[in-house]
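Researcher: Go.
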Amino acid sequence: MFEVETSLTQCLEKFFGFDSFKGQQEAIITSLMEGKDTFVIMPTGGGKSLCYQLPALVSEGTAIIISPLIALMKNQVDALRNFGNEDGIAHFLNSSLTKVEITKVKKDITDGKTKLLYVAPESLTKEANITFFKEIKISFFAIDEAHCISEWGHDFRPEYRRLRPIIEEIGKVPIIALTATATPKVQQDIQKNLGMTSANLYKSSFNRSNLFYEVRPKQNAIKEIIKYIKGQSGKSGIVYCLSRKKVDELAETLRVNGIKALPYHAGLEAKERAKTQDMFLMEDIDVIVATIAFGMGIDKPDVRFVIHHDIPKSLEGYYQETGRGGRDGGEGNCVTFYSHDDIVKLEKFMKGKPVAEQEIGKQLLHETVSYAETSSCRRKFLLHYFGEEFNEEGCGGMCDNCRNPKQKFEGMDDVALAIEAILDVKEKFKTKDIIHILLGDVTSTIKAYKHNELECYGKGAEDNKNEKYWNAIIRQALVSGLLEKDVENYGLLKVTKEGNKFMDEPSSIMVTKDHDYEGTESDSEEIEGGNKGGSGADAALFAALKDLLKQTAHKLKLPPYVIFQELSLEEMAIQYPIKMDELVNITGVGQGKAQKFGKPFLDLIANYVEENEIDRPLDMVVKSIVNKSGLKVHIIQNIDRKLPLEDVASAKGLSLQDLISEIESIVHSGTKLNICYYINDIIDDDKQQEALEYFKESQSDSIEEAINELGEEDYTETEIRLMRIRFMSEFGN
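Model: Structure:
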């Protein structure tokens, strides 16, 4: 069925400019060209695409490439068109095309110009397309991203389940299925669903030796990301986030901090996504911020870093996303920010889904948690997950745990105790149940199955051993091959042959305690409030700034808080601003306040930095995007027009108290607002004068103290807050 005039190597050189094949590429291509169904598991960057592109170019007819990613289709079609003079050599057929464009594609295929046609699975199932495909000569079908077939894959697409019957309806030709990530379970699922159990299987090693894997606690993640990217100046990178909203926010934050970045997610127009992709490939931007859920399919060989702002839902997803780094064999750094709070969030997202789907989701998530929290070699853990044995010595310090190893301790007795518990319950329970037994917990499962009567019950609770400790023990017994999980049965723990041998003759097994990522800062706190100061502040500088604040306040006959609040001083003692544009990025310091009071504070900090030879964390002076900028403009404009505050609040769906809080925030940052027109209508002149005198003399801006002093029978809390706003605006701004 194939017409090959020259050798495969000559074709490779003619079309792609390479003089030799990589890994198993030649064997895979030969298998397909001999008319055999072929199944390829090859990691990202291994050269999967060439395995179907080359045979398509040298064969008679058109190869149909089924791909879920519109972005990848466009990217590959553009690349393929460079191999010949004829644009029609490759096309794609998906929802982004107009009727005129579809007619052109079909004409090129009928005229024999098109060797590769990329099709979305939804397009393949359309009756009109099925009829058309029956009329043309098809060389073979290639199913890319084949893991989408499996419910156990990280990117399950129900429409992929319908591919086999449709392909059979179109006609009998060879099928090549390809994926960059497949656990043994997913592999089995793909082959069964595609009717490819007897296909030639080619599985490459999943080890990407040039990738460095690192997991960091999620503290000040946005600042850390900006700092990291600025340290990689001019290099290309991808940042993954969990939600579209976060993608948009983070891309904007990177931009205002001088980083050339754009967002990329399914909520954007197709044209905008295509433009962003082209800008990334052409290096007009350095960083793409994308959703985890949306497969990007950007085939760029020199992506130097892949950052996960949020932990992915599965290790398959993580592996594929990190695999987009260093495809050219060069540097590829994979940095993940992890907080257990993110896992809780992901678990909440599963609520309401069918029970079977929730169970699968929880198991996949548990593996991700295990990877993030392990103190053992991350590369070994990852490869074990994909069914590949690996000696951690081969990592060569290319993960954070091998580069900075934690102290190991002898775990022989505890591993034996865990295995004993698994055998005692006849290998019919999951990790969490085994841990409950070892710790002597009282749960409904333990009561129902009378596990409290087992000899091992409660034996693991001594020496302050807890759930985290036993998780680490069981996890390392799994990676060592002493235990395995029965994924068909929701992850029940089973003892392997090696595990039984170990029980007969226990031998030394060194283990490490897991990392502890509890109590990491949640993202919303980080964005809304900025750095809360205190713990990270330079104590000597903070004390000097407080002294200067007192002197300035005394000289201007104003309370200190009118000039700068303590929170602002704390942040100055962390960030060391020495220029006006750096000072305005400090929480609570707007342009007006910086201009009016800032110079002596900047001078003090500059002298302090010089005298103490401080290396300023300039890249950590993060300019934040003001999510409420539209609201701020609305408030200022309507107060200038002297509209009643109730009307201003109502227009934005706010309560009066919420509006007052927004006004307080605006005034604290140094913007002058005149609300006297409103105050004059509700507070008489004598009371206003008394309140102003109080705030002039008081060293505190506390509302409670003001009410106590002025009398709660005379003033409401709202009146006090309004008078404090008037005072701050008139005397401080």
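Model: The chain has five domains: 8-203, 211-354+361-391, 409-511, 530-620, 629-732.
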